[in-house]
Amino acid sequence: MYGNNGIVTIFDSGVARAKSSSGLSAYFNQNYGGLAFGSSALTLYLNSQSIGSNLYTLTIDATGITAATQLGRGNAGGTTVQYDNGRLYLSPGAVVDAGTGNQLGQFSTTSPISTTPTAVSGPVVSDSTLGRAWIVPASVLENTNQILAFDESTFNPTGSLPVTGIGSYPSNSFNSTPADLVRWGQDGLAFHTSSQLYVLHGPILKDTSTSPADLAVSIQAPAAASTGIAFTYTVQVTNLGRNGSTGVTLHTALPASAINGVVTPSKGTCGGDSSLDCDLGMIANGSSANVTVSVTPTTSGTLGMTATTSSVSFDPVSSNNQTTATTTVTGNPFNPSPIITQLSPALVAAGSSTLTMTVDGTGFTAASSVLWNGQHLPTTIVSSGQMTATVDSSLVQQLGWAQVSVTTPHLEADSRRVAPAHLSTAGCTCKCHQL
Predict the structure, then answer these.
(1) Whether 419 contacts 406, CB under 8 Å
(2) Domain residue ranges in the chain
(3) Cys-Cys link to 314, which of 30, 212, 226, 401 (CB 3.0-4.6 A)?
(4) Edge-to-edge, what's the strand order for the sheet holding 182-184?
């Protein structure tokens, strides 16, 4: 905080650090100015209006302000300062090097009483990614009632945005003088006077008529759940951009320690088991698409779900394209009865070499395993609806049939369903059919 006594103090949650600034130029209790951090929280810049105009670099550490260095005089002063990409943008319209204090340029404009460009002063904000800066002129001798845009390489005006009632010429008053200027969104500016807040946007900042979309994904999930009791995830994809997004897809990594149930998209289609891939089509700007997923936890612990969205349309903001939600699960292990619905392959030629068999069904858990005529096979759990098992070549040397089953330990009941094959027949841990 820069006090009217001319002293800068650093506060942490309302508590002042031990060391305040010292040695700064001050004029009784009639000092004002602006503060801005540099490229890190270790450097603070002060644009001061006291005895003359002064620009300082303040060095910060955990104890407060440890040093102050004057960068310049004359081209400083006013109420605002902004650091952007190695430059300082000051209220008098001056742009200086943040390291040396050397002036790099001056924003100028014509006035209602002269066609000769003069220095423009007022709150200023820069966006070096666009190469532009904007000023709300505050003096009656400048083009008021508008925001002016400037090219940061030439310092020449590039456009204006009319705003009624600020610093009006010829009757400028204190109540209409802008106090600050900030950027918001892709094409927005905001500032306030003593009596009014102004929020506006337009192509003077950025032409968004052909702007890309901005997809954001979120997951709604309960904080707590119990084993054996189903609950629902809701995954939402929202287009925050100014234009529609085409070819929107959603990929979710579903929890391994849960049985996946019904998947319902609000639009498009979804497929998969251990992971879910959805084609959501086109999402208009400001619109959303939801996918609900029912899951049943099988073990206690932390259940996590990750969702990622993408689209054919260019999305420059990637930070909101992925999210994760967690649910704390309590209760005893839950082992549902396994059911087989399909084997692949279902027919194997006698004398075949070692093969991998895929077992589809429901109710598979990490404790489940595949049996061949009651013999446990090396099993890999893919999801609650699919497993793979390695069938050694010694098991498929003779013509005939085999009972394939799935078993999960600690189940009171077994249910089996078999699909016939010459050498292998599908099933759970129960009865089988012979060809």
Answers:
(1) no
(2) 11-201, 215-330, 335-435
(3) 212
(4) 182-184, 188-192, 197-201
Whether the pLDDT of residue 165 is over 80: the answer is: no
Q: What is the pLDDT of residues 195-236, one digit of tens each?
A: 888 898 777 777 666 667 899 999 999 999 999 899 999 999
Same fold, 215-330 and 335-435: yes
Q: What global pTM score does this model have?
A: 0.52
Distance (Å, rounded) from C-alpha 141 to C-alpha 119? 10
Phi and psi at 55, nearest 5°, equal -125, 125
Q: What per-residue confidence (pLDDT) applies to 318?
A: 87
Selected from 1.10.3520.10, 1.10.10.60, 2.60.40.10, 2.40.320.10, the CATH number assigned to the domain covering 335-435 reads: 2.60.40.10
Name the token pair of 76.
């400083």
Tell me the C-alpha distance between 28 and 24, whole Å.
12
Specify the 3-state DSSP secondary structure of 120. Answer: coil
CATH number for the domain formed by residue range(s) 215-330: 2.60.40.1530
